Amino acid sequence: ESWVAESWGKQSFQENKIVTPSTEKKAVPSPFWSVSARSSAPWQFTLLCLALMMRVTAPVHAADLKVTNLRCEYAEHPLGVDVPHPRLSWKLASGTRGQRQTACRILVASSPKKLAQDQGDLWDSGKVATDETLHIPCQGRPLKSSQQVFWKVRVWDKEGQTSSWSQPASWTMGLLDDPNPQPSSSFEVPGWQAHWISAEGAIAANRPFETAQQPNYQTMRLRHEITVKPGLRRAVLHVCGLGHYELSINGRPVGEDLLSPGWTKYDRTCLYDTRELTPLLHPGRNAIGLLLGN
Predict the structure, then answer these.
(1) Which of 180, 204, 184, 206 is nearest to 193 (CA)?
(2) I want to staple 290 with a disulfide (CB 3.0 to 4.6 A). Which of 194, 203, 222, 232 is the partner?
(3) 104 CB burial (10 A radius; 0-12, 13-18, 19+)
(4) How many C-beta neighbours within 10 Å does residue 96 have?
């Protein structure tokens, strides 16, 4: 028996041999979804019906609603957040018109491993019915100075479907007020355990901010060596340099900003920066350098 393959070149096959279609009636080419009465390939029609059924009956999942741009106190992965309850914010992305958030759940963890296991050991908000995405105060266990915190969010859409978890984000705490502050030998600042380092004669009556009124002191270059033991997990530095400073670790600059930390009225407010030092340190002896400008 012979048949005509209408959609694949209009060649005639007989006993698995190709012959010239000189006596066969030529068929008019048809689209791939057409079915010929002489065709023995009904699979085309079957696949078409299956594809249409899948397209029509496929449910709409909440994965269409995504949580993006996680921020803490207006910044992504900030260092030096020195408020007890940092405010968390995020954005929503969706291809569905009129899509919105009806509830959310926030997880805050002390390590990336616990966060990946959906364990909010610092705070698990649970499902909260809200459409708010800005300035959600972090609750739960009290946070500590210099602590690194990890968090993520998931939301529910207008149909009550759950989105996937957002990408994890983090922030690092600054110096929080110590409930039992210990006064330093030079200047009392809650949360700090440090001493002012100044040019000889720059401090008068324990008032280091007066250096701003004494422009004749020379710029100082400070250096200190530390020993790092193997297995370092993380190292951060909080530095307050009145005037301006430039910090380096083993000769490499720390940060890209200039004229830090910024001018203020030093007898009322002194700014400080929090620096990430972990990738700059190595086991053994390391040198910390600081150029202090008046």
Answers:
(1) 184
(2) 222
(3) buried
(4) 13
